[in-house]
Automatic annotation (TrEMBL):
Gene3D superfamilies with a match to the protein in the record: Medium-chain alcohol dehydrogenases, catalytic domain (3.90.180.10), NAD(P)-binding Rossmann-like Domain (3.40.50.720)
InterPro entries in the record: ADH-like_C, ADH-like_N, ADH_Zn_CS, CAD-like, D-isomer_DH_CS1, ER, GroES-like_sf, NAD(P)-bd_dom_sf
PROSITE patterns xref list: ADH_ZINC, D_2_HYDROXYACID_DH_1
Highest taxon, organism lineage: Bacteria
Similarity annotation: Belongs to the zinc-containing alcohol dehydrogenase family.
Keyword field: Metal-binding, Oxidoreductase, Zinc
Name of protein: NAD(P)-dependent alcohol dehydrogenase
Taxonomic lineage from the root: Bacteria, Pseudomonadati, Pseudomonadota, Gammaproteobacteria, Enterobacterales
GO molecular function: oxidoreductase activity
Length: 338
């Protein structure tokens, strides 16, 4: 079977129309016809081979909203049906039988989970994934804006589960962009007290409108000093190196500094910043199928929708440059128009 797509033929190049033979559908796989696909900075990193794992031709895209168009023989008994709306995020496959998978920690599969991008991603008319990674969409979920929940959303939701965030928690979010603005919406639904750290004072009112209780200028050292000892969790979504010490100082006893941003430089933290107060520095990747299902149910119930702008998929290179230039109004979503 031929699938139409937009692929990078070499690192850093503009995407080209590319048709590939998908072959027979694996027994446990689902084929999904793409309706929408979000654009994530990870797509750019893979297109440019920033992480050294890209394989070309490379079909990026891993925030897919679509409809089941075919089911492998074994997948037919897994509760999915033809025409059903599903979402596919960062991960396409995991072994399903190692200790991590059996414990519901499939993203840490001992045999190595397979990213959707390396399995032929969602910048295409169709894509395939193991049935467990095709996440059923709740009926009331806004399908046009839901794609970014499958990567950006689960990336910021998982730390809130890990650190048992509740209505009594005080949480800081560093970087109110594509990830950070979703974190604020989720935290508001969970009832936590939210402080947003932003380097863009002009965004203050829009950040408050999203649900933040406080907005702090992250470029103002004096403002940061005033927050010492306050936060149960500080969630960093930025991929740039900062002066981290003021944020470590802002943690309450037993507080956690958690990063989901791919900062390439090592964190500089003094031992006593952690020892005094039993504090910790942690990180996480994306979530399990179960966690993704929980997030989508919460998003449907609490009306959590990422702020997005749309491009037709035929204008994909314009969309990628829009994101690359930092002009995206939080998130970009492609609408399939093959």
């Amino acid at each position: 079977m031929k699938i139409k797509s937009y692929a990078a033929m070499e690192a850093g190049q503009a995407l080209e129309l590319y048709e590939y033979d998908a072959g027979a559908l694996d027994a446990e796989d689902v084929e999904v016809e793409v309706d929408y696909c979000g654009v994530c900075h990870s797509d750019l990193s893979m297109i440019d081979n920033e992480w050294g794992i890209s394989q070309y031709p490379l079909i990026a895209g891993h925030e897919v909203i679509g409809r089941v168009s075919a089911l492998g023989e074994a997948a037919k008994s897994k509760g999915l049906s033809l025409g059903q709306r599903v979402g596919i995020g960062w991960t396409a496959k995991s072994c399903q039988h190692c200790d991590a998978c059996i414990n519901g920690d499939q993203v840490n599969c001992h045999q190595g989970s397979i990213p959707t991008i390396l399995n032929h991603g969602g910048f295409a008319s169709k894509l395939r994934a193991n049935w467990q990674w095709a996440i059923p969409l709740p009926e009331k979920l806004d399908i046009e804006s839901a794609g970014p929940l499958l990567c950006g959303g689960i990336t910021v939701f998982k730390p809130l589960l890990m650190h048992k965030i509740s209505v009594t928690s005080r949480v800081g979010v560093i970087g109110i962009g594509g990830l950070g603005h979703i974190a604020i919406k989720i935290l508001r639904a969970m009832g936590a007290e939210i402080t947003a750290f932003s380097s863009s004072p002009a965004k203050k009112q829009s950040i408050l409108d999203m649900g933040a209780d406080h907005v702090v200028n992250s470029r103002d050292p004096e403002e940061l000093k005033k927050l010492a000892g306050q936060f149960d969790l500080i969630l960093s979504t930025v991929a740039v190196d900062l002066d981290w010490q003021p944020y470590f100082d802002a943690l309450a006893p037993k507080g956690n500094f958690h990063t989901v941003g791919a900062v390439m430089k090592p964190f500089q933290v003094g031992a006593f910043s952690l020892i005094q107060g039993d504090r910790a520095v942690t990180g996480s990747s994306t979530g399990s199928p179960g966690q993704m299902r929980s997030l989508l149910k919460l998003a449907s119930r609490a009306d959590i929708a990422p702020k997005v702008e749309f491009f037709p998929m035929s204008k994909i290179n314009d969309a990628l440059e829009h994101v690359r230039a930092g002009k995206a109004n939080y998130r970009v979503v492609l609408k399939a128009d093959f």
